[in-house]
Amino acid sequence: MHRSGPFIAGSGPAGAPFPRKVHLMFDITTQQVADTVPIHVKAADGTRLYHDNKPVLIIVYGPGSDVFDEVTERQVARAIKRREENDGKIDLGTKDERRAELAQDLADLTVRFDNLAYPPAGAAEGKELFRALYSDQKLGFIAQQVAKETGDWGKSKLLSSSV
User: What are the pLDDT digits (tens) for 147-160?
Assistant: First the structure.
C-alpha cells in the first residue's frame, strides 16, 4: 500500500493504538541550491587567482536556475537546427562559430566578475564585457573553466547555507 505524508507507527486499515509515533523523513528541500554559483578563477596552470588577497571570482547562474535552463534549451535548438540543415548529419559548426556561441552562452550565464578586470574590453560592461573576455582565445582556459564548472551541481551552494 502506498502512503503519502509521514509514516505513523501502528497505523493501518483497522485503526491504531494511541499515542502514535511519527517518524519524520528527511526533508529533501534542505538540499535545494541557490540560483548562482561562484567560480574561483584559476590561471592556465591551475593555480587559483587572487587580487589584493581576495579571490578572483566569476559569478554565474548555475544548473538550478531558469537562466541555465534557457541557455541549455538554446544550445539544444542550435544542435537540432544544424542537424536538420545538414541532412541529418552532425554538424558542429566552424571553430569561429563554436567560439562565438560559447562566448555568448557564457555571457548570458554570467552575473558579474569580482576582483577581475579585462582592459581590452574598454568601457564595456555586463554581457558585452563578459562576451569579450570569453571570446579571447589567449584566455580560453577561463571560458573552458567556466563552461565546465557552471553545470556542476556540486559547485552550487545550498539555499539553507546561504541564508
Answer: 999 988 888 877 76
Element of type H or E holding 152: none
Q: Is 14 left (phi over 0), alpha (psi -120 to 50) or beta?
A: alpha
* Integer Cα distance of 50 and 30 in angstroms: 32
Are residues 57 and 116 in contact, defined by beta-carbon separation less than 8 angstroms? yes
Torsion region of 10: left, alpha or beta (phi above 0 gives left; psi -120 to 50 gives alpha) = left
Sequence-ordered strand ranges (E) for 73-120: 110-114
User: Residue with C-alpha cell 555568448?
Assistant: 104
pTM: 0.77
Radius of gyration of the chain (CA): 23
